[in-house]
Each structure stands twice: as structure tokens, then as C-alpha cells.
Amino acid sequence: MPFRRADAPRRFLVRLAAAAFISVLATAAVILAVFDRTNELYLLEIDRLLHDDSILWGPLFQQDVAIWHLNRAAIKHPDVMVVGSSRVTQFRDAMLPGTHFYNASLSASSPWDAEAYFRTLYTVHKPKLALLGIDSWWFDATRDPKFPPRATLSWHFSPTEQVAALLRQANDIRALGEMITTRLDLAPDPIGRRVPVGYNAAAKASGFRADGSYQYGAILLDRYPLYDRAGMGFRNGFRHERAQVQGTVGRFGYAGPPSQLAAETLRRIVHFHRDAGVELVLFFPPFAHAVYAEIQANPAQRKYFDEITRLVRQIAAEENVEFHDFHDYAKLGAEDSQTIDGLHVDEIGALAQLRTMVAAKGALARVITPEARRAMDALVATRHTINKHLVAP
Amino acid sequence: MLFNSFPFLFVFLPIVLAGMLLLVRWRAMRFVAWYIGLASLVFYAYWNPIHLLVIVPSIIVNFFCGKAIVETERDSRRRLYMWLGVAFNLTLLGWFKYAPLIAQTLVSRNVAEFTSAIVNPALPIGISFYTFLQIAYLVDCGRASVAPRYTFRDYLFFVTLFPHLIAGPILHHAAIIPQLQRLERRFRADRYWGLYFSPGLALLIIGLMKKVLIADEFGGWADQSFAAVRSGLFGFLDAWGGATAYTFQIYFDFSAYSDMAIGLGLMLGIVLPRNFLSPYKSGSIIEFWRRWHVTLSRFLRDYLYIPLGGNRAGRTRRYVNLMITMALGGLWHGASWSFMLWGVLHGALLVINHALRWLIPWRTPRPLAVAVTFFVIVFTWVPFRAANTADAVTFWEHMIGLHGIVLPWRYQPLAELLGLRVGDVNYFAGLSQVIFTAAAACIVFALPNAVDFVLSHRARLVRSPAAPVALGVGLVVACLVMLVTENVTFLYFQF
After folding, report:
1. Any chain B CB within 8 A of the CB of A161?
2. Residue A232 to residue A389: CA distance in whole angstroms
3. Do A27 and B476 touch (CB under 8 A)?
4. B153-173, pLDDT tens digit by residue?
5. Cys-Cys link to B291, which of A262, B226, B277, B356 (CB 3.0-4.6 A)?
């Protein structure tokens, strides 16, 4: 008889239960320790994250950025706001003094994201004017959602999401190694003297400011080793970005017919704004001129860009919505040195876009005050006082 | 209710086990089969109660059809009843599973549409499994000289037993129903907790860990790779990353389900048949099909291949029979011609394998045979997973480098050395995926089969101080991952 002693199975089960219980405690301790080590414990004080304007929030995980922007926009009650991807991060409230401005950058990396963001935010606050930055890859038909995307967003930060992201990150050995070995600096960030909250703020001085704009600290302070290795940005001749265009890869990996689903969604966004009584301006954020020239030199890319421009222009004309095509940075009178990299212009470039919108006497010109207009002109004169890429600290 | 979900693990299962043990304690053994049968229907209804309208009539019709067969003396009438029953089952399966395929076939405009898998939310879950096991029952009733005679309670228990109901194994009535007579002995306290419950719990936890910690991780990589095959961002490493990820995903997913099903069966005092015998350790495709989905292979052999003539009518006929069996076996997996293509591909490989054995007298060294078989299997999973055959062909083209080979930026020196391009690699997770895959390969090729190990070391397992601790830790880690990730269904649930 293998089980003469009847207490063996009982011991087995008791040990299993005890090990499970201890594991729960140990796991909780490890998660807390990692969050503490990575300056991510702010999750326990979400209120500060939402209401403290003196912080620079650079989260380790990006999954809650749209939720943060929702809450912040609801608190700030902006009259003018920008929504889009990383390519609209450089619009600052300092560019429009006297106007309540908010930049919900990085909350929309597709038309479906943008639609969900607008639909959720407008249930509590409607600005007078929304500027929607549209990326060329939004019309990549291979990115069309296979299932109906979320119609609205949640308002709540979810600690579970943070733990989930941590666990996902935990099996990326390189990211885990970086998380453990990087020295964090909890002193106010060297650029804007804001209190760093979150891993990227403390490790790279990168993060969101109170107006929702993003400070690319790692690049401004030259703390991004891959930047030169991959050949990114002006000083490397935009080698990385141009290679993407030439090879039809990366962000330029699609040059087929524009997604009709994306076009329909864009049209739906326009209708939704009309129904909500919010003015909408559509615009293509700029590429560095060298990158844009590469696009024009590539027949497939040129055709794709012509088609999406024609498509958005047609939607704008039919729906009577203002539209600006800023794809070519040179047409804004800016230089390629005023970029973060080939796909992202800096604050000088963002200011140039706003000034062009105002000069066109469109919706933005009607909303901002004369002081703001004068201040914009003044900023052009006083730029470069902090850092050549910034208009304000 | 998935096995890897909190409602199943912490609500349904404890309630079922507690109820069952109470019945045992009250010496109401005759109610145990009823209780588990009805609980299994609740489990089934949790997915979609409307599907009870398919499974319950199917059970009733098959039970009475079997009863009519065994109570009929005349052979011709027995055969008639048997064929009527089989036709009823095939009609049911055909109507729910294959009618949408025929509809799609009629309106397809190109290869991609013709071979695309159909998402059919109306498909009653598990219908392929419970239909096959009932067909086997009817055929056995028609064939047997001493026909099986079961009560409705026993038959209901056999068909609905929840550990197998959704994704197999495909049970044989003669292996399960007689166990009901032995339940009382198995539930004796000195036997049940040590011989059944504890090893069953261990297998349940091992399966849960395989599913949540390994299979689903590979699943994420495989999903993004196969979804991107048509995008301009896809390349050589993405294709290999996706194909190997799916190879390991389906292995661990099916292995996990099999472990959990056997573990749950043991916790109920029932020994389920083995369905998964470390198939990637196979040294040939013939061996692979003796180790992968064992109960399906056995069903196809006993109820299709042998009735077709098997290998009794010469070599050519044998090969034709193999191709037919594998093509239908492929189509059983899903309403898509690409599944049939996958079956045909495996049929052809089996024919080649048999022919090579006949033509070449020597044996390939085992490690080489295992490696070659594994790579062939990696390739053949592509049409099984791809959205359609056109995608599968594109995927294969990337795998063999027809669209060029691009290494990630950080490997520029290596790329220069090899004369390759560098660029963005978008759907391959890089070093983490390589390390994870290597670790999974160690588990697949170097460790013993979990069910073998647990069942042959039951006594040591229960006495060992380390095993319960490892299982307890594993359970918590798996639950933690379940808590923070989307609940992913088992791959075989869709078949």
C-alpha cells in the first residue's frame, strides 16, 4: 500500500496552500520593490499625478497615458486642445498665453484611438477648438482593426494594468536589465526643474508636463545611445528615417491604397465634432524636409502620400473642415536642425505650425487672444534661450 | 468557463468537488454520475445556454439509437439503425460546422477568401468532440457481438463529463463507463486523496502553468506575427519568430489542456486516456501522429482508415486511404479548406515517410531524425495558423528568405560580416523571444512528459516536501498572470 499513512496527502495539501499563501505575500513585496526602485510608486497617489502641476510624469509603461490625458483635460477645461500621436507632443501652453490650452499628445496613434478619446472626453468637457494631428500610417490598411475597436475609454487608472505591464516588461530581459541598473535622479529635472515622477522622468528627464506636452529629455540631454547608433536625427543626416522610406519599412512600410475604414472613421470624427459644437482642425504634422524629399523621390511613397493628402483634403472640403498639410517642414520656413528626429519636429516646429494656422485666419485665429498672437511672435525672437529645441523651460 | 479562469478554478470546481465528496460521504454513490453529468451541463451552458438545445437532443437521440441497435436481433436492422444514427450525427456536425464553409466557398472570389477560416459564433462548442465519441459508440453498438448496455445516467456522464467536453480527449465509452462501477473503491479516504486528488491537483496546476506562463506568451508573439504577414513591415526574422512561436504555443496549449483534463478527471476519480505523448520528440511524421492528439488519431484509424481498407489492399490503396483519412482529419479541425490543405500536407508527409521506410533500409540517427521532423512540423503549422492559404504561402516565402533577410540595427557588425541588410524588425521580440524559446525547447526535448512523471511518481510526489511548495508557488504565479492578462481560450476549443 503506497499510502499507509493517511496524513501524507493532507501534508501535501497543507504545504501547497502554505506555499501559495507565502507566494502571494512575496509577489506583492517584489512588485512593490520594483515599483519603488523604478520610481513608479506614485500609483498609490494618483491624485497628485492628476492635480500637481509641478511634476514631470515619465511613466515606465505608456498604457495609461490616454487615461491621464482624459483626466487632465477634464480638470484643465481647455478652450483649445491638440490630439494625436508622438508627432504632436511639442505644442506648449506657453505658445498660446491667455488661452486655456491642453495637449493630449500620445493619446491617439490611430483614428480609432482619437475617436474613443474625443467621445469619452466630450461627455464631461468640450473645448472650443480641437486640433487633430493625423499621421500618414493611420491610413495603412493592414492596421485596420480586426474587431470593432473600443468606442470609449475608461477614466480610471488601473493598478492591475500597471502590474500587467510590469510583468510583460519583466520577460524583456534588456528592459529588465535597464530598469535594474539605471541610476535614477530624483532631483528636479535639469531642463524644466520639475519634480520627476515615474521611471523615465527620473532616469531620462523625459515625461509629460502639466500642459500635456512631452519633454524628450533623453534626446535633449543626449542620453539616448541608440539615437546615433541607428543614425537618427539631423546630425546623422536622418539616415535611419530615410532608410525606412527607401526600404518601405517601419512607419513607411505601407504604400498601398489608403484604408477606407480609417477614412470613414475620420469622417465620423468630423460629424461627431459638428454635433458636439466643437470646431475641428485637421493637420498633417511635419516630417524633416530631408525625409519628405526622400518620400517624394520614392514613387510608391509619393503616390501613397498624394493619395492620403487628396483623401483628407476631400473629406475636409466635403465636410467644410479646416485642413493643413504640413508634411514638408521646409514649407513652414523651418530648418531640419529644429527636429527631434526625422518624424518629430521640436517646439520651434510646433510654434511654426500654430503661426501658420493663425496666419491662415482659420479657427485658431478666431479663438486665441491678440495677446497670444503677439506672444507667439515674441517667442520666435526669444527662442533658443533655454535649449535650441524649446520655447519655454 | 475556461479551465484557466477564476470562475472555473475557484467557484465551479470547488463546488462540484465539494458536492461530489458530500454524496460520497452520505454513501449516495448512485447519484454521483447524475450529479457530475448535470454539473457538466451547467459548465457547458455557461458558454452559451442555447447550445444545450443541440447537445441534449444529440445525447438523447444517440442513447436511444444505441439502445435500439443493441436490442435488435437482425443484423440488417442493426446496421440500418447504426447508419441512421451516424447520419444524424454527421448531419448535425455538417449543419453547424460546415454549412458556413459551403456558403463561403460558393461566393469566394479568390484563393484568400476560398481558404479563409470562418469565424462562426453560432458553432456549438465542443460539437466535433461529442459528435465523434457518440459516432464511435453507435458503430461499436452495431459491430459488437456483445453490445454495450448502459443506463441513460451512465451515458450522460460519459458524453458530458466536463474535463473532456470542450476539447477532448475523444473518449471511448468502454474506457470510461466501466469506471463508474469502481468509483466507490476509488473514493476510499486512504486511496482518493493520495492516488487521485493530489496527483490530479498537481496536473491541474502544471497544466495551468504551461497554459498561462508559456503557451499564452508564445501566443502573443505568434498572433502579432501572423497578423502582420501582409504588411510591408514583415520580414525573415518575423516569419521565423512567428512560426516557432506558434509551434511552441500549440504544443504547450494542447499539452496544458491535456494535463488539466487528466488532472480534473483524477480529481473526480476518473482516469482519462492519454492524448499527448511529447510529440515533438518524434523521429518521424509517422511517430508524430502516434503522439499528437492520440485519441483523434485512434478514432480516425479505427473508424475511418481501417473501414476504408487500411493497409490490407496493397501499398497504393494504403497511401490513398492515408491521404483520405488525413484530409478529413484536417477538415475536422475547422471549417476551412486551409485545414484540409494542412491535413493533405500531413497525409503526403506520411506517405513519403512510409515510402522512404520501404525504399531505404537504414535508419537516420535519432537526434537528426528528431531535428528534421521538428523543422518539418514548424513549416506545416504555417497553413494551420495562417488566416488563409495566400497568407501561408507569403509566410513561407519570408521563412525561406525570398523577400530578403534583414537583421536588427544592433546587429550591424554581424550583418556586414554576413552581407545582410540591417533595418527594423517589427514582429520578432528579439533576445527575450530567443531565450524564452530556448527554455521552452529544453522543456519540450529534455524533460519527461508531465502526465507520465506525475502518475509514475504519485507516492513520491505526495510525500515530497518540495513538490507541493513548487506547485503552490506555480499556482500563485499563474493566477497572478491570469489576473493581469486577457483570458486566452485554448486553441483546441475552436475545433
Report:
1. yes
2. 16
3. yes
4. 999 999 999 999 888 788 899
5. B277
Cβ <8 Å between B432 and A9? no
| Inter-residue contact B62 to B138 (CB < 8 Å) | yes
Q: Nine-digit cell at A224?
A: 539616448
**Would you give the end-to-end CA distance of chain B in angstroms?**
16
Give me the pLDDT at residue A229, please: 79
pLDDT of residue A5: 47
**Whole-number Å distance between alpha carbons of A84 and A345:** 14
Instruction: Kindly tell me the sign of the dihedral angle through the C-alpha atoms of B423, B428, B432, B435.
Output: negative
Which one of the listed residues B51, B164, B172, B333 is annotated catalytic? B333
The total number of residues shown for chain A amounts to: 393
Concatenated DSSP letters of B381-414:
HHHHHSSSHHHHHHHHHHHTTTT--EEEGGGHHH
* pLDDT tens-digit readout, B289-310: 999 999 999 999 999 999 888 8
Helix (H) or strand (E) holding A207: strand A207-208
Asked if the ipTM is above 0.85, the reply is: no
Partners of residue B198 in chain A, C-beta under 8 Å: 9, 12-13
Pairing of strands A322-325, A279-284: parallel
What does the pLDDT average to over A209-238?
89
What number of other Cβ atoms are within 10 A of residue B5's Cβ? Answer: 15
Strand A339-341 versus strand A344-345 pairing type: antiparallel
Beta bridge partners of A207: A215
Domain boundaries, chain B: 48-187, 194-283+364-494
β A55-57/A195-197 pair status: parallel
Say if CB B89 and CB B51 are below 8 A apart. no
The alpha carbon dihedral of B462, B466, B472, B478 has a sign of negative
CA quadruple B36, B39, B45, B49: dihedral sign: positive
Pick the closest to residue A251 from A261, A260, A241, A259 (CA basis).
A241
Kindly state the cell numbers that stand for A314: 476631400
Q: What is the pLDDT of residue A142?
A: 83
Over residues A235-262, the pLDDT tens digits come to: 999 998 998 898 887 888 888 899 999 9
Sign of torsion over alpha carbons A129, A130, A134, A139: negative
Overall average pLDDT of the B133-139 stretch: 93
d(CA B376, CA A138): 38
Nearest CA in chain A to B195: A3
- Distance in Å, alpha carbon of A261 to nearest chain B alpha carbon: 16
Name A102's bridge partners: A81
Strand partners, A280: A130
Whether A17 contacts chain B with CB within 8 A: yes
**CB environment B327-358: b (16+ within 10 A), e (fewer):** bebbbbbbbbbbbbbbbbbbbbbbbebbeeee
User: Cell 443541440 appears where?
Assistant: B54
Classify the phi-psi angles of A231: left when phi > 0, otherwise alpha if psi is within -120 to 50, otherwise beta. Answer: left
Helix (H) / strand (E) containing B472: helix B466-484
Is B333 assigned a catalytic role?
yes
pLDDT at A228 exceeding the cut of 80: yes
pLDDT, tens only, A364-382: 999 888 888 888 888 877 7
pLDDT of residue B411: 78
